Amino acid sequence: MKAVTWQGKRDVRVENVPDPRIQEPTDAVVRITSTGLCGSDLHLYEVLTPFMTPGDILGHEPMGIVEEVGAGVPDLKAGDRVVVPFQIACGDCWMCLNGLPTQCETTQVTGEGMGAALFGYTRLYGAVPGGQAEYLRVPQAQFGPIKVPEGPPDDRFLYLSDVLPTAWQAVAYAGLPEGGSVAVLGLGPIGDMACRIARVRGAGTVFGVDLVTERLRRARARGVETFDLRDFDSEKELVTAIRDRTDGRGPDAVIDAVGTEAHGSAAARLAQQASGLLPRALGSRLTERFGVDRLAALYTAIDLVRRGGTLSLVGIYGGMADPLPLLTMFDKQIQIRMGQANVRRWTDEIMPYLTDEDTLGVDDFATHRVPLSDAPHAYEMFQRKQDGAVKVLMRP
Asked: pTM of the prediction?
């Protein structure tokens, strides 16, 4: 089959690889009909290269048609249309039963000290072959895959794999009061969708911050009050402008949808780039012990949120030696929630927004749809924010 493989920093290729097969009774094999390119994939493309191995199959936002199931998968059959969550979880352990499939005790990558295994996401999360491919082996298929109805195009349901539950959890963790205010830093796919979800869940005011024209335009078109980072000479000016819209206090919650690849923080960026140029074994050891993030967005979030407010961190951070302003965080009595999205915890709440009217605008959420063979160009375009690329879907 054809699959998108990682070959080095900023080097992905579509190659022929062996077809997946059933290996365990709880496996399924899915023929992929659509697969997303996620901002998290860009971390592998640029920042987390020390944890990758040439030939790794990328991708964690797939959906398709079940081709085959193992004997331990009673609720799926060949021909079912399914979305595959990005995490692999059993559904039966203590963590899963308590709404934390990202911490599944059956699939935890204990050798790396990490949580549940993920599709297509480094050896830290199990080095499981991902979904940017023609076919995908799905472990723990008795729990993971989400059956969706026939009829609507893939775009209606594909985002259940990652974008929708990640944004939904970001808003849920923000703990917004009815009619409250929230600022979303970063209007890529997750931040954009978080703005939409905040509005349908009763936020009174949603502020969106970015520096990419197309992203700002999309958010503004859906009623978000946008702030272009390029219009401000400093982070303090931005914070003051938003505080002025919230009686001088700051918003009730701030969602950081940027993460480790924030603009600014030049020294941290240099350190990330240097680790990516080292031999993988050495680079991974240094990153595990001394890795740092570009924390500009997080610092802004801490400064911006009102006293007693909540920070919801959904942008991925990977640093082990990051300096945080703990005095400010303690003094302001900030609450912080974060973590990978617990996909199956939220899907039943999200599904009604997909089966009737397209309340969240998923049908036209993608800006680009390309064949799988165009993956190298799609990665470069998305990484460089070219051609208005906000969300890219690939079809095998």
From this structure: 0.91
